[in-house]
Design brief:
156 residues, four-stranded antiparallel beta sheet
């Protein structure tokens, strides 16, 4: 789970793993520590990925944007695809070790937000949908929701 595929391979790796329903591997890669892992690029208080694993060059290298996108798409579950009739899809990946996610994205219709948290009652999910969205949550049927605010409590 070390990033030896290069910046161009890493750009598509998260999408490919997601298409094969291997979000567990994406999490392992994101959480892994050590040289050539996302955590390594953020050591020393950095908040963006550096160009080089040795922290040379750019201090905010956009070619490493895939980990950021994965946080929205995988853990927050927000995907926007304007080619589809219902462009917004919400399909969060819950990881108890992570504990919670607060994720929002501004789109033409307004702000899409997904917040989830592990609690004693289960996984609490709050969503704000500025337009229709396809929503997929564990142990529920995929469904199209109208614009609005939604609150769910899912069993662990």
């Amino acid at each position: 789970c070390h990033l030896i595929c290069g910046i161009f391979g890493y750009r598509v790796m998260c999408d490919v793993l997601d298409s094969f329903n291997r979000r567990d591997l994406i999490y392992r890669i994101m959480a892994n520590e050590g040289y050539l892992c996302p955590q390594h690029f953020l050591e020393g208080g950095r908040t963006t990925f550096t160009e080089s694993p040795d922290w040379d060059g750019s201090g905010c290298h956009c070619m490493w944007g895939s980990p950021d996108a994965a946080l929205f798409k995988i853990f927050g579950g927000i995907t926007i695809d304007r080619r589809r009739e219902v462009a917004v899809e919400i399909r969060p990946y819950f990881v108890e070790e992570v504990g919670f996610v607060h994720c929002k994205q501004l789109i033409e219709e307004g702000e899409v937000s997904v917040d989830w948290e592990y609690t004693n009652d289960g996984i609490v999910v709050d969503m704000n949908l500025p337009t229709k969205a396809i929503v997929s949550l564990p142990n529920t049927e995929q469904k199209v929701f109208d614009a609005g605010k939604y609150h769910f409590v899912l069993n662990k």
